[in-house]
């Protein structure tokens, strides 16, 4: 993770805007090969949007061939509500640059089928070629997008209930009236963000200091979901001095030193010319196996290999009626019988969702007699036990479903 500390919010925002302009220009997007940008809302990115608009007006960057996907949107407030993320984005950014409205994607928090909306959003991201650069802010509780503490690090775009702290923090946009703050939102998942080719986070002000400390100095932790960025090969955090208040002096010094050394070597951050860009010839859908072999400059995101999450709507179901052949005769039940804690689960080895299986230690233990040390030599007891097992028992693989 690269980490840049700037004196104040304006300098941090300018740093990020410069970086984004470099990345877009280096990519040289065309209509057939657009640059795909993931975008956040909140007060934090306002300075970045302002700087990007200025750079656009100065003729230094164009959004003509940029496609955008916003991170999240509230559920249940009209799209034209002044605090909807649709309104926010058009007010602060889109209306001031030359982006094509058809290239703008924001989740619809009023969609008739919210789950379908989420699944389609992921499909649209893939169809666009995946996100080249995801810009993000951070909640006071360390959330990224609306992935509140405890969110699965393998999560994808889905419906999310907001944490009380987030409702409280966002009430400042709703006249400090908690009742007016939406309690639910649609959000990209942690895994959706991790699959971007690059993630750039801005953290400003003392109220982000604790979350920043947890995310920078501590390990990957589902209670501070932005910390999942440690799993990303190209993530960057840019903060101001105030946001470093909870960091160790040693940490601040370490990252400042690294930046100085890098600058002395002739570069400040990874040079755009060295940075991997998505080849124009790639298929429109992302199939990671078809990407070129990973290199030091374009590693495969580890997470896309480690975490293969399914869309929120595709929960594999536990079979209610495993093949009777797998179940010893004395344990067989009728096909419609729901299994209870007393059922011998160890013989049902085909469940795709062991997480939801009730478990008792007793169910992991074989014959009760095995536990009784009838002999001072347990190994010998085990051999005796195995010899005494019926042929059916020997054929039936025993599965420790909760391990
Ligand atoms: N969903 C958004 C986040 O994407 C954003 O990072 C966070 C921080 O907001 P702010 O920048 O105003 O502190 O607010 C909301 O919760």
UniProtKB/TrEMBL annotation:
<feature type="region of interest" description="Disordered">
    <location>
        <begin position="368"/>
        <end position="403"/>
    </location>
</feature>
<dbReference type="GO" id="GO:0005829">
    <property type="term" value="C:cytosol"/>
</dbReference>
<comment type="similarity">
    <text>Belongs to the glucosamine/galactosamine-6-phosphate isomerase family.</text>
</comment>
<protein>
    <recommendedName>
        <fullName>Glucosamine-6-phosphate deaminase</fullName>
        <ecNumber>3.5.99.6</ecNumber>
    </recommendedName>
</protein>
<comment type="function">
    <text>Catalyzes the reversible conversion of alpha-D-glucosamine 6-phosphate (GlcN-6P) into beta-D-fructose 6-phosphate (Fru-6P) and ammonium ion, a regulatory reaction step in de novo uridine diphosphate-N-acetyl-alpha-D-glucosamine (UDP-GlcNAc) biosynthesis via hexosamine pathway.</text>
</comment>
<dbReference type="InterPro" id="IPR037171">
    <property type="entry name" value="NagB/RpiA_transferase-like"/>
</dbReference>
<dbReference type="GO" id="GO:0019262">
    <property type="term" value="P:N-acetylneuraminate catabolic process"/>
</dbReference>
<feature type="domain" description="Glucosamine/galactosamine-6-phosphate isomerase">
    <location>
        <begin position="8"/>
        <end position="224"/>
    </location>
</feature>
<dbReference type="Pfam" id="PF01182">
    <property type="entry name" value="Glucosamine_iso"/>
</dbReference>
<dbReference type="InterPro" id="IPR006148">
    <property type="entry name" value="Glc/Gal-6P_isomerase"/>
</dbReference>
<dbReference type="InterPro" id="IPR004547">
    <property type="entry name" value="Glucosamine6P_isomerase"/>
</dbReference>
<dbReference type="GO" id="GO:0042802">
    <property type="term" value="F:identical protein binding"/>
</dbReference>
<dbReference type="GO" id="GO:0006043">
    <property type="term" value="P:glucosamine catabolic process"/>
</dbReference>
<dbReference type="GO" id="GO:0006046">
    <property type="term" value="P:N-acetylglucosamine catabolic process"/>
</dbReference>
<keyword id="KW-0378">Hydrolase</keyword>
<keyword id="KW-0119">Carbohydrate metabolism</keyword>
<feature type="compositionally biased region" description="Polar residues">
    <location>
        <begin position="374"/>
        <end position="403"/>
    </location>
</feature>
<dbReference type="GO" id="GO:0004342">
    <property type="term" value="F:glucosamine-6-phosphate deaminase activity"/>
</dbReference>
<dbReference type="GO" id="GO:0005975">
    <property type="term" value="P:carbohydrate metabolic process"/>
</dbReference>
<dbReference type="InterPro" id="IPR018321">
    <property type="entry name" value="Glucosamine6P_isomerase_CS"/>
</dbReference>
